[in-house]
Write a structure and sequence with these properties.
Pfam families: Ig_3
Number of domains: 3
Number of helices: 2
Organism: Ascaris lumbricoides (Giant roundworm)
Structural class: mainly beta
CATH architecture of the largest domain: Sandwich
CATH superfamily of the largest domain: Immunoglobulins
Strand content: 25-35%
GO cellular component, one term: axon
CATH class of the largest domain: Mainly Beta
Protein name: Ig-like domain-containing protein
Shape: flat
InterPro entries: Ig-like_dom, Ig-like_dom_sf, Ig-like_fold
Length: 299
């Protein structure tokens, strides 16, 4: 006996039936930036987008080639049944990396472009020549990789291109400055290529309070981030009472060596004060109590 099944599908059913692999409709930009602090990151949360059509069934994220665990606590699905968007509620430094979204159904898989997630904020590059901002016109002077680095290329060097050049790289945390590059004209015309490498971030650490016995020397180390060329180091002073006051340290008894170590020499102050006292027959000092210390700055 032969059994025949007759199946009738309405046009509307055929219209709703999809026999295609997922089609990617929306994804994040190539670069996503986030902030991360030691205490509270609630206001630093960020998301990665991944949306598709053609009946997507599963969404998966991979970080640096390994499947990402969306734990539902620190990393959440924003709309589990509608999209593959994920939200980082508590971003951490180790969240940096390359992310990719995979969307699948029984007919196939769609893959998003890689998203480079970085901590710190989008970088902004500027070049200065002899203290004035350099115009990178896109014709004679070009950005080599505008979204990735501050490298510039001089396609048609001219005599007036001689001078001292310096690259400034800034983000939401501050500005890093390269060493000066002295560009000089040689005997043969050739393309000039300047490389401005981004400095690495300072390592995060809690505020450190140092109590020093009066009359003792003091040295404070600076863990200088790696950079090429080697970064120059300078220290800033912030008043603990009037925190809006920030100034460079210009005192003869305070020095910074090439490694960035700040040293305080009280004996130099006392010698200078003694000479000053003999000449002027009186002393002038200012009490600059800081961090609970009784410090005196003789001028």
């Amino acid at each position: 006996m032969d059994i025949v099944f007759n199946v009738h599908l309405h046009d509307s059913t055929l219209a709703d039936l999809s026999i295609c692999p997922p089609k990617l409709e929306m994804q994040s930009a190539d670069e996503v930036w986030f902030q991360s602090t030691i205490t509270n990151n609630f206001n630093n949360k960020f998301s990665l987008r991944c949306q598709a059509s053609e009946n997507p069934e599963t969404f998966e994220w991979y970080k640096d080639g390994r499947k990402l665990e969306v734990d539902g606590e620190r990393i959440l699905w924003q709309k589990p049944s509608q999209s593959g968007n994920i939200l980082f509620v508590d971003p951490q430094p180790h969240d940096e990396g390359y992310y990719q979204c995979f969307i699948s159904n029984i007919f196939g898989t769609a893959v998003s472009s890689k998203v480079h997630v970085q901590r710190g904020g989008k970088r902004h590059f500027e070049w200065y020549k002899d203290g004035r901002k350099l115009e990178v016109d896109g014709e004679r002077i070009l950005w080599q990789k505008p979204s990735q680095s501050g490298n510039i290329l001089f396609v048609d060097p001219q005599p007036h291109d001689e001078g001292y050049y310096q690259c400034f790289i800034s983000n939401i945390f501050g500005t890093a400055v390269s060493s000066k590059v002295h560009v000089q004209r040689g005997g043969k015309r050739q393309k000039v290529n300047h490389v401005c490498l981004v400095l690495e971030h300072f390592k995060e650490r809690p505020i450190r309070r140092m109590i020093v016995e009066e009359g003792r020397s003091l040295s404070v180390e600076c863990n200088v981030p790696h950079g090429i060329p080697s970064p120059s180091v300078f220290w800033l002073y912030r008043d603990t009472v009037q925190t809006s006051i920030i100034e460079t340290i210009r005192r003869p008894h305070i020095a910074v060596d090439p490694q960035g170590i700040l040293s305080y020499y009280p004996h130099f102050v006392l010698e200078r004060y003694a000479i000053f006292h003999i000449i002027h027959k009186r002393s002038k000092y200012i009490n600059t109590g800081r961090n609970g210390q009784n410090c005196r700055d003789y001028r």
